[in-house]
Amino acid sequence: MKRSRIILDRDFTVGEIDERIYSSFIEHLGRAVYGGIYEPSHPEADELGFRKDVIKLVKDLGVPMVRYPGGNFVSGFNWEDSVGPVEDRPKRLDLAWFTTETNEVGLHEFAEWTKKAGSDIMYAINLGTRGPEQARDIVEYANHPSGSRFSDLRIKNGRKDPIGIKLWCLGNEMDGPWQMGQKTAKEYGRAANEAAKMMKWVDPDIELVACGSSSSEMPTFGSWEMEMLDECYENVDYVSLHRYYENPTGDTPGFLARAMDMDDFIKSVASICDAIKGKKHSKHVLNLSFDEWNVWYHSKEQDKEIWKQDKWNRALPLLEDVYNFEDALLVGSMLITLIRNADRVKVACLAQLVNVIAPIMTRNGGGAWAQTIYYPFMHASKYGRGTALNTIVDSPVYSCEDFENVPYIDSVATVDDSGEVTVFIVNRDMTEDYEVEVDLRSFGDLSPDGHIYMHNDDVKAVNTEESPFNVAPSEGAAPEIHEGKALVRVPHLSWNVVRFKKA
Ligand code: AHR
Q1: pLDDT per residue over 260-301, tens digit each?
Q2: Spatial separation of the C-alpha atoms in residues 254 and 269, rounded to whole Å
Q3: Cys-Cys crosslink for 34: which of 24, 86, 264, 315, Cβ 3.0 to 4.6 Å?
């Protein structure tokens, strides 16, 4: 067995963890809405047509906020289509995903769903085909109490109280050529600034996310952030980051190292924000919204076939990645990375939530089940609360094609308000179990409060409707503590959540 050390000090903190880092995303795409959260003919449907089995899985997952309604979809979306009597709402061709959007579920229905799921809405406006005027109008519709054209329209449409959306995205991935209404950094920065001013004049309590690059691999990454922030820095509150990872060649060690790229991406964007702050002699600090992150590649070939056969149909089964065990390990490391950067990352959305690159899958008319990636997210959301600790990890390292000095043991720790310490650990080693010594001496008397772990000898193992718990967490042996140091046994290729409470 190999050895590693983790050193923690209760006074050595990164920062408060904003619970919104455990947010997710539902786009009008594929079967996320129709056949995912909404299926009126399903035996589990409630009075509004929402699947109760899906709501239960979302609540158990712990999702404080859901980004909506897109994604690429939003860049051609007219918000007015999604309100008023359902029978009067238009059917529109969605040029982002080559389907037909029926608008059966719109803003009011989604607000009802989020209430049932225990979440808030993070709402994206269209800065692709539309502009500041429509951005102003939707804030007035959603948040203004009454006595104006759009607030009164909301009341007429059945909702007296404002929906009260606090966090808004100023468009989506506006640097991408695939985006309807793609813009240069300067064009986008100008549009975002004018939209931001008008939206905040309607409701000064809202917060706004400016679009960063759609990936760190974009050729314009870096210059996009600098140029667009030059235009809108003072009027926005966060910059977005998006990143999806793939393992098409079956290189597990290389794949599991990708969280290091995520960490680098976060630090680069934070540095750019601070550079613009310096350039502008500003007192305003911009934080980060990592509002799309996940593994995404399994379904890409299948999607091409679907579009060949079925273009423009409603609720096509698009982006239905079936996640395996190694995906869960990388998702675990990505969560560790978000917590480790809790001082700057205040919002993060696992993309997405149901059926579309999602932790939750459903069958139309059938069951709902948790994919492998569901579990690390659920554990992080449940136990990764309070304060992120600066976690010193002394681990053997390896090298792979894209990274050097990748620690086999990836870890971060948190301490919550009751003094409970949680240590999250991913063991990236393909063959070796580890004995990890966790130095907890500065916390006083602690006793073990459980060790949850996930290990599978088959990195390609998946969960299905027939076998929904093929990859699922187990309870491990509680670690022993001697003189303030705990010894935790961590299996090779595993996700671990080790908890300690006040003795
Ligand atoms: O999450 C799927 C898509 O990925 C989103 O619509 C888009 O923003 C990103 O490219």
Answers
A1: 999 999 999 999 999 999 999 999 999 999 999 999 999 999
A2: 23
A3: 315
Enumerate the CATH 3.20.20.80 domain ranges in the chain, comma separated.
18-132+164-187+207-383
Return the closest-CA partner of residue 121 out of 46, 215, 24: 24
**Atom 1, ligand 1: residue with shortest CA distance:** 351
Q: Is the CB of 173 under 6 A from ligand 1?
A: yes
CATH of domain 18-132+164-187+207-383: 3.20.20.80
Most ligand 1 atoms within 8 A of CB, residue of 172, 182, 216, 356 to mutate: 172
Delimit the CATH 2.60.40.1180 region(s) of the chain: 2-9+389-502
- The whole-angstrom separation of Cα 195 and Cα 75 is 15
502 phi and psi, to 5 degrees?
Answer: -60, 130
Ligand 1 centre and the CA of 117: distance in Å? 23
Q: How far apart are CA 143 and CA 169, in angstroms?
A: 15
Which neighbouring-strand residues pair with 500?
421, 448
Q: Which atom of ligand 1 is nearest the CA belonging to 72?
A: 6
Q: Which of 476, 463, 465, 403 is nearest to 435 (CA)?
A: 476
Q: Active site includes 301? A: no
Catalytic residue among 173, 194, 231, 420: 173
Is the CB of 71 within 6 Å of ligand 1?
yes
pLDDT in tens, 112-127: 999 999 999 999 999 9
Tally of residues, the chain:
503
Q: Indicate the pTM of the whole model.
A: 0.97
Residues 242 and 291: beta-carbon distance below 8 Å: yes
Give the residue whose CA is nearest to atom 3 of ligand 1.
Answer: 71
Report which of 358, 348, 339 is spatially closest to residue 296, judged by C-alpha positions.
358
Superfamily of structural domain 2-9+389-502: Golgi alpha-mannosidase II (2.60.40.1180)
Closest C-alpha to ligand 1, atom 8:
71
